[in-house]
Amino acid sequence: MTESDELFGERRAVLSGIGQSDIGRRLYRDPLELTVDACLGAIADAGLNPTDIDGISTYPGGMENPAGFSGAGVTDVQEALRLNLSWYAGGLELPGQLGAVINAILAVSAGLARHVLCFRTVFEGSAQGTKGRAAVMPGGDSRSGGFRATGFMEWLLPFSAPSAAVWIAMFANRHFHEYGTTREQLAQIALNARRNATVNPKAIYRDPMTMDDYLSARMISSPLCLFDCDVPCDGGTAMIVSRRDTVADLRKPPIEVEAVGTAFHGRPAWDQYYDLATMACQDAGTQLWERTDLRPSDVQLAEMYDGFSFITMCWLEAMQFCGKGESGPFVEGGQRIAREGELPLNTHGGQLSAGRLHGFGFLHEACLQLWGEGGERQVPGDPEIGVACAGGGPLAGALLLTRGR
Amino acid sequence: MTTTTGDVPFRILPRITDRNAHFWQGGRDDELRFQRCRQCGYYLHPPAVICPKCWSKDIGVEAVSGRAEVLAFSINYQPWMPGPEVPFVLAIVHPVEQDDLRLTTNIVNCAPDDVRIGMAVQVIFEPHVEDEVWIPLFEPAP
Ligand SMILES: [Zn+2]
What we know:
The complex is a heterodimer of chains A (405) and B (142).
Chain A: H1 3-7, E1 13-20, H2 31-45, E2 55-58, H3 74-81, E3 87-90, H4 99-109, E4 115-123, H5 124-128, H6 164-179, H7 183-197, H8 211-216, E5 219-221, E6 224-225, E7 234-243, E8 255-261, H9 281-289, E9 301-304, H10 309-318, H11 327-331, H12 350-354, H13 360-370, E10 385-390, E11 397-403
Parallel strand pairs in A: 2-3, 2-4, 9-10
Antiparallel strand pairs in A: 1-7, 1-8, 4-7, 5-6, 8-11, 10-11
Chain B: H1 21-25, E1 32-37, E2 43-44, E3 59-64, E4 67-76, E5 88-95, E6 103-107, E7 120-128, E8 133-140
Antiparallel strand pairs in B: 1-2, 1-3, 4-5, 4-7, 5-6, 7-8
């Protein structure tokens, strides 16, 4: 172990396996079953048995509301698989959804566990049924009964803004205003995602989409239209974080964790962050690049959160693939971010087209691509360096991953 | 009179507490009120228990002018829940008294397409009298 590895403890961790359940718009299946499908898949992919697992980490932890947001918590999986745990954590006050994986990385780096099972399951598609997103929103069914807004929602719900779509739309509009970003540029995030989804057999939306389709879609909250919003779905995603010195136990060469980013320096509220044209991601991105000698130009693929298309634009800037405010020109035309381009982006179709697996889908895809298991959507050139980033607004966590270096 | 007129739309109202009552009930007296540090003069919003600039707990409540600037906005077309008719404008505005003083609100009494970043606005209250809540909205300044 080198001196810098001692300083940057995340390098003592590797990703050793990934798994995913069936994914569907509405599966109407027990979300715990989806969870264990993903978990057992990841354990087998790593070449391990359930009895090898001595840690669990998950986001957001077990919770009933909003409906469909959490398919299983730590104890659900611990009990289902009867695991003996040396360490575990589940919760949502973290650096984004992938903060749960970063927790696992820290746990194995600290020697608290050897193989940590990380998972995230959603069943928002089934939970919403045919009633749409309003059915699962805070206060969405509250016309009667005297529901009152509290917590951070106190400052948003009274203004009829229950959805991150509306909050993010304001930031996107601010970006358009400050930097001249256009809808045609923003569209490239959605069009690129759909192009990649057409060759992802598990993607929710696989029909080709044109710029005309995008521009004629109904507006949700300007400048975001329907295709700027991700698609709720059902599915579980899992991955195994292992200590690097367990490599002899593993089925395939692990993916190394070169650096993580978890910083957040602004005010922790959707509408109070000092720069309204970016988000917490810029702090996480800055920190990540301070923890490695690799540079943004070394990265061969980027899997970056697209709960709303504009969030990906923020991540492109935050991870310094382009300058601040330059994400519009960077994605213009779409060639640069295509699978054959200089920075293949959201190669599975993102949450916009592949389904809202809520952060974990990006890390799953980054690992899949670095292992060369992308099938028809595999990024050419045997990529060895990638990033996975998740979270929008006051949530952000990023990982820089390498394979076989 | 700076209150809205006509029927009041359904809104999910805030739970009123000792800490936030000055903000949600200031409209009864036609005042937009914020906490303000008595030691250093810093306005705090959302309400807090300590001044983040000088760490004083000596915090009072003061009315501001009600004038503000639009920092960011969106025209919302999606009817998420019962409420104001769509399209309506959601905005982040900053009261002129302090650069980093902000709140999310709706811009009313103008066509949504006429709202601009940088636009000067002023507070207007939507009374929910039975519930003892006055929602601070903003309209174009004259
Ligand atoms: Zn003070």
